[in-house]
Amino acid sequence: MKKVGLTGGIGSGKSTVARMLADAGFAVVDADQIAREIMEPGSPVLDEVAREFGADLIGPGGALNRGELARRAFASREQTARLNAITHPAIRAESERRFAAAAVAGEPAVVYDMPLLVDLGLDKDMDLTVVVDVDVEERVRRLVATRGLDEADARARIKQQLDDDTRKAAADVIIDNNGPKEALEPQVRELIETLKR
Ligand code: ADP
């Protein structure tokens, strides 16, 4: 089974490409979705987060106040590292479980949709690394227009991530999503052909 890492900066269209690959029948492991699932009410990861960042983060129904956690965890590099030390191993373990399940199911390939793939050096575990690339200014425009982020927030989030040149340097395949969505389709079709080979 081929492991295909799919990554890109926030707002690059990574999820859009992942959806196209899922529609084409590929198994997709979504790291953001796992990150949410490991902090569902009652989970051991959520307990640990509450111990480290404050029990008041958990509401009466057991749900996490994500906004407040983000405020506390992104207040400094040190706090961010503390949160990552709790969540990253759990995300990694669950991702590995899903890769193994895909292998057991006989999938020829599994796509790992992971924003921090290159940031965390996980691209080295992949057979193919695909980077979706869009210029920063266009990503800011799309994040403001479609996700309702304000411009300063969009820029702050982009700044927290790896820079585009370093990410692209790790790519085996670069998908250019600076153009309209229609321009993605032929590039994704070509990727699919590569994956079938
Ligand atoms: P990511 O997962 O990389 O953060 P998304 O796939 O969610 O990015 O895309 C960010 C936003 O930009 C979404 O609202 C998406 O529909 C939109 N988008 C993606 N590709 C294009 C494109 N080529 N032109 C315009 N908008 C796009």
TrEMBL record:
Its main location: cytoplasm. The keyword Nucleus does not apply. Keywords: ATP-binding, Coenzyme A biosynthesis, Cytoplasm, Kinase, Nucleotide-binding, Transferase. ATP binds at residues 11-16. Pathway: Cofactor biosynthesis; coenzyme A biosynthesis; CoA from (R)-pantothenate: step 5/5. It comes from the Bacteria. It catalyses: 3'-dephospho-CoA + ATP = ADP + CoA + H(+). Transmembrane segments: none annotated. PROSITE patterns: DPCK (PS51219). Its EC number is 2.7.1.24. It holds the Pfam family CoaE. It is found in: Cytoplasm. GO terms for molecular function: dephospho-CoA kinase activity. It is an enzyme of class 2 (transferase). Belongs to the CoaE family. Catalyzes the phosphorylation of the 3'-hydroxyl group of dephosphocoenzyme A to form coenzyme A. This is Dephospho-CoA kinase. It comes from Corynebacterium jeddahense. The lineage of its organism: Bacteria, Bacillati, Actinomycetota, Actinomycetes, Mycobacteriales. The gene is coaE.
